[in-house]
Design goal:
By secondary structure, the protein is mostly beta strands. The protein is built from one helix and eight strands, in the order αββββββββ. It is globular and about 45 Å long. The structure holds zinc ion.
Length: 134
């Protein structure tokens, strides 16, 4: 029972992208930060949770051919730096597209997908990836 309620509590932050907004300077951080690196002390107690829509633009990308064993079924894959509409830049995998379809400046949106599978325990990890907005 304890395990189930723990999982339930973790659900919201795992299945949506939650960042933090500094109410002192309005900058948004993802992953969340407890202290704004710009405002430091002035941001204490002013970092508020904010939903990240998950839409953004590809700033740069690279096609990755070498992959660790857990990712073996999905190579090669594209790893991109994405500037989210809320401001933060994050690295994410682009799925559902051929590498040739991806360009700098392409619009993307986040989706929740299987990240990896632990062969021994059978545990499947999910997380956000990105697809091209069509
Ligand atoms: Zn700030």
């Amino acid at each position: 029972m304890g395990e189930l309620s723990r999982m339930w509590r973790e659900m919201p932050s795992r299945y949506r992208m939650e960042g933090r907004k500094c109410e002192n300077c309005s900058r948004v951080y993802f992953p969340p930060r407890d202290i704004c690196p710009v405002c430091h002390r002035d941001s204490i107690g002013k970092m508020k949770p904010v939903d990240i829509a998950g839409n953004g633009e590809i700033i740069s990308y690279t096609v990755v051919h070498e992959t660790p064993p857990a990712f073996i079924r999905q190579k090669p894959y594209v790893l991109a730096i994405i500037k989210l509409d809320e401001g933060p830049m994050i690295t994410g995998q682009i799925v559902d597209s051929e590498p040739e379809e991806i360009k700098m400046g392409s619009r993307v949106k986040s989706v929740f997908r299987r990240i990896s599978e632990d062969g021994k325990s059978g545990v499947i990890h999910y997380g956000y990836k990105f697809t091209l907005e069509k």
